[in-house]
Design a protein that fits this description.
Elements lengths: L1 H21 L18 E4 L5 E8 L4 E8 L6 E8 L9 E7 L5 E7 L16 E9 L2 E9 L6 E12 L2 E2 L12 E5 L9 H27 L8 H29 L7 H18 L13 H30 L3 H36 L3 H4 L19
Antiparallel strand pairs: 1-2, 2-3, 3-8, 4-5, 4-9, 5-6, 7-8, 9-10, 9-11
The structure holds protoporphyrin IX containing FE.
The site of protoporphyrin IX containing FE has 23 residues, from strand 4 and strand 9.
């Protein structure tokens, strides 16, 4: 067993480290602003050649931003907005910029109350200062400082570009990327709904949150059937090892997200993550370090392996929900995850009932021989497991 798994494990660990180290490299990180302005965080926005750079001052509750839009001609307007009330354009508190006919730049604020907006200048729902814009080499940049007293650290952002007509912005295209340019922004961690945070969330939800319980289901329910021995063990081991590998990759992406924001910690999420990593490592080491099935302490080892196993599953699920709270993804992701958990719980309940049924039936039919064969003697299928055939 150890011989087969060791090289696979090593390859997978290396692969997971590769994923975690390469995903975070974004092109915005290499950008240098004029006049030595330095922004601590940045994100490559996924549509419309856009980049957001920012500094967040948590105590003053201010965010200094630079919204950069490349490949844009001088007859276009660009805009970036926070939407405190929803996900799309309506409700957006926009910063708008374009070049006027006289060649000077206009940068102003415009709250968007509906799709018929003409982007008239107006106050936003939060104070904005130091608003300015530049245009050079087909690149428009809006600079501003926002005071966000009442907003949470994760906000909805929207960005856009469209034509300028007679020194006013006209309607943007309403197809393709122009209607996809919305997302989340985590001001504290630098995570957006589309990049690092999503990868972290997905890897962890799939591994710790889905594969791990499935692997436990294999062990708990297949074990009862003599014909599934040792297949259940292989399924369990493969499922849990791959969950662990993907989980470690997810965990490492989380460390990277965290290291982008020193001073800001989601303490309980982080502590549970570290505990999970340790317990998960312990569980996977069972592949190589478990007492032989005949060993006199094997019974106690099984209890230990089960207790840690179930604790890891419970902690993982708790931590995934904590992650949802931090990343604040679209509701559909949380719903999908809850749906998968409910599905797994239903399958497990049905299997639990069925297993008891099989075990009780088997116990009844085998009880006359019990004295001769002993508890485990009849077919000896429980070699890898904790349970004798009479127990569930
Ligand atoms: C000149 C002013 C604007 C007009 C007339 C306008 C008009 C519209 C219309 C009619 C739609 C609906 C398209 C559809 O679903 O068929 C739309 C969508 C959208 N607009 Fe605008 N818009 C303007 C400015 C802005 C600004 C300033 C932003 C962002 C800062 C923006 C971001 C979006 C986004 C992301 C969508 C797609 C998501 C949604 O429907 O909310 N728009 N716009």
């Amino acid at each position: 067993m150890g011989k087969t798994f060791k090289p696979v494990l090593i390859i997978l660990v290396l692969f997971s480290l590769h994923i975690s180290s390469s995903y975070g490299q974004s092109s915005c990180a290499n950008y240098n602003f004029a006049r030595n302005q330095v922004f601590r965080f940045c994100n490559d926005l996924p549509y419309l050649n856009s980049f957001l750079h920012w500094n967040y001052d948590q105590s003053a509750k201010t965010v200094k931003i630079a919204y950069r839009h490349t490949g844009v001609s001088s007859s276009r307007w660009v805009a970036w907005a926070i939407n405190p009330t929803g996900r799309g354009m309506v409700g957006a508190q926009a910063l708008v910029a374009f070049q006027k006919a006289d060649g000077t730049m206009r940068a102003y604020t415009a709250p968007v109350s509906g799709y018929q907006t003409q982007l008239q200048e107006g106050d936003l729902s939060f104070p904005v200062s130091d608003l300015s814009a530049t245009y050079a080499r087909n690149e428009m940049i809006i600079f501003a400082t926002l005071k966000l007293d009442n907003l949470s650290s994760t906000v909805n952002q929207v960005w856009q570009e469209g034509p300028v007509s007679g020194d006013s912005p006209a309607m943007h295209s309403t197809t393709g990327p122009n209607v996809q340019s919305t997302g989340n922004l985590n001001l504290l961690s630098g995570a957006t709904g589309t990049t690092g945070g999503a990868i972290h969330g997905l890897l962890n939800a799939v591994s710790w949150g889905i594969l791990l319980p499935i692997g436990a289901v294999f062990a708990r329910y297949l074990k009862v059937f003599p014909s599934a021995d040792p297949a259940w063990f292989y399924l369990h081991a493969i499922c849990q090892s791959s969950a662990y590998i993907i989980g470690v990759a997810g965990w490492a992406t989380g460390l990277r997200l965290g290291s982008q924001s020193p001073g800001v910690q989601y303490t309980s999420h982080r502590i549970i993550g570290i505990v999970l990593f340790c317990l998960g490592t312990l569980q996977v080491s069972a592949l190589l370090l478990r007492p032989k099935k005949e060993h006199k302490h094997r019974f106690y080892w099984n209890i230990y392996h089960h207790c840690i196993g179930y604790s890891v599953i419970v902690l993982s699920i708790i931590n995934i929900f904590k992650g949802f709270d931090i990343l604040n993804p679209q509701e559909k992701w949380k719903t999908a995850y809850i749906g998968i958990l409910i599905g797994l719980a239903i399958v497990a309940t049905i299997l639990e009932v069925y297993t008891w049924f099989v075990v009780v039936k088997r116990k009844k039919s085998s009880s006359p021989h019990k004295m001769q064969n002993g508890v485990n003697g009849t077919n000896g299928y429980n070699g890898y497991g904790a349970r004798s055939q009479d127990r569930v």
